[in-house]
Amino acid sequence: MILKSRHYDSPKGARRSFLRKMLAIPAALALAHASLPALADDANTTGLAVTKDTVKVGILHSVTGTMAISETGSVQAEKLAIEQINAMGGVLGRKIEYIQEDGASDWPTFAEKAKKLLVNDKTAAVFGCWTSASRKAVLPVFEQYNGMLYYPTFYEGLEQSPNVIYTGQEATQQIIEGIDWVVKNKGAKKFFLLGSDYIWPRTSNKIARKHIEKLGLSVVGEEYYPLGHTQFNSVINKIKLKKPDVVYAIVVGGSNVAFYKQLKAAGIDMTKEHPLVFTISVTEDEILGIGGENIEGAYAAMKYFQSLPNDNNKAFVDAFKAKYGNDIVIGDVTQAAYLGPWLWKAAVEKAGSFDIDKVRAASPGIELTTAPEGYVRIHENHHLWSKTRIGRAKADGQYEVVYESKDLIEPNPFPAGYQ
Amino acid sequence: MFADYTSSELLSIFAMQGFAGLILFSVFVLMALGLAIIFGQMGVINMAHGEFMILGAYMTYLTSHVFENYLPASIYGMYFFIAMVIAFFAAGALGALVEWAMIRHLYKRPLDTLLATWGLSLILQQLYRTIFGTREVGVTLPDWLMGSYALSDSIEVPINGLFVMALTVVVTVGVWLMMQKSRLGKQTRAVVQNRPMAAAVGINTAKVDRLTFALGCGIAGIAGSAFTMIGSTGPTSGQLYIVDTFLVVVFGGASSLLGTVASAFTISQAQSTMEFFLSGSMAKVLTLLVVVGILMLRPQGLFSLKMRK
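^ inputs. structure came back:
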């Protein structure tokens, strides 16, 4: 099955309208000279790289450098979405052509490439960035040259730009529901917060701490380690002494692997849930490096897991594997990246135009009923309404979904009382 | 600081932290040893040291794959030893190749070796990315290396930590014996002390250089192989270790193995103790400050070889 939005025809409908178009060809041919340029003008009044049968977009991720480990999945997802959209006939009858640039894990490079994509290539949309640092670097460029960025990563919030659609979760969407769940279902009372030392874990833990304290429970420790830290024996000893009910871990990158391997080696069996290990930074992608046997039994709060049992997701996973091989895994961010081109297509078609201002105006309220995660809708604040799920890591590297929020969680990038 | 804990807790804190410090010490020695040999004996600053380590890690990954898929399950537990031998020879061979192709042309220009090996590290990273993919790979450990050994209720010792410690002792003693007793070791020391004289008495200095560089890289390979137990294996994982490695070697005094060991011990114990009572980032900052302070007073490092200039 192919992903679609509520704002345009289903594949069956598309086929029918294709037939209609075939029948209309003789008539269209007669009118072609008169009508097509006019159509092109309507859809593109600002000089974007849109012709009468193609539209150019940008993909801007790191495929070299440290971040290549994380960003590869996003690039693959965006390319898959573009390919599927083209197979369905493109956007407003135009095939999408992408121009891929490499941010090379270097933030000034991201800004430079963003400028190139907007100024030289005149792309109608850019799908890209992964770290908050890279997003902050390109933000002034997108605002100055009025581009549109679809940003896939879950992040710390505290941002809302008219030139960015955030397809991942902001911090409260991941954190609050997760903590409520673990308190209600596991009777957790004492939390130990742990993170890599930069903005996302610190902001997230701030929200987590406020929420835990609001519930009348206690935080028995809060620790940060430099990015890339590989020795966690000291903090593991501390955890053993403080005896928390929950270790709330937001460790990232190579440190992640070291942390879970050493936790396991230190005799903490996560399947016994004593303490229970809860994370918002480990997706299926990270488990590849950590090894399923080293993280089995830990819980993660995400909006998407590869194992989500719905038809949309099944089709998505099949298509992804057909394109990239059977061993590939799909994490939360990869799915969020996949939403980008589809959300953009829906907004363009709702606006009837590629113009950035019109796409922006059309974006709030756009919904995807066939997103792999189920259903999402763009909020006025440019983030997505989406459900929060809790998964339990299994030895084979997949998550078993144990909980799903009843309703969509409202994105709230500036949570009052949590800062 | 101590008021939060009872005295029996404090006792086990010190026991566990002492042990955590020892593991860190072993890790430091293992990763610094190869660099210390190359830097100390040859004066070459090998910025690609981390990438040689990761080559060892990838060799371990490949070996575990071969054992898992093509050999009987009963001998799977042994793969780690084979992997370390392969890692040693693979990293050593690459080291010899690099020395022949690049380093030997730069002996008279030490600053250029810095730049050249840094470039090499970038090339190797991209090579790993092309061959093994951009994602990290997971190395499965044999069962006997997992888990921990409980000394008392509150004191548990991770088995892979013990393994790293034992390995460090074996490698360090091996290197020391080789340097003191073997023909190559004696030749190496002779070349370090006086290159023209060593050449005059018939030592093939070019060959000694190549073997020394290969040995340093080979030991890096062993370290990388062992670190699959505690860390990640990806194209850029080597970068995680390089700063600590240089810290240990420079602080220890470049040309002395004993210095490397002493410096690894000081830094690891200081860091793990501070990590427990302060936060992780703060401990790192303080450790670096102390090292910088001591190096300002004693620029040659903790130990240095006395030599006629």
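Residues 171-302+390-404 of chain A form a domain with the Rossmann fold fold (CATH 3.40.50.2300). The CA atoms of residues 391 and 402 of chain A lie 5 Å apart.
thumbs up if we can close this ticket
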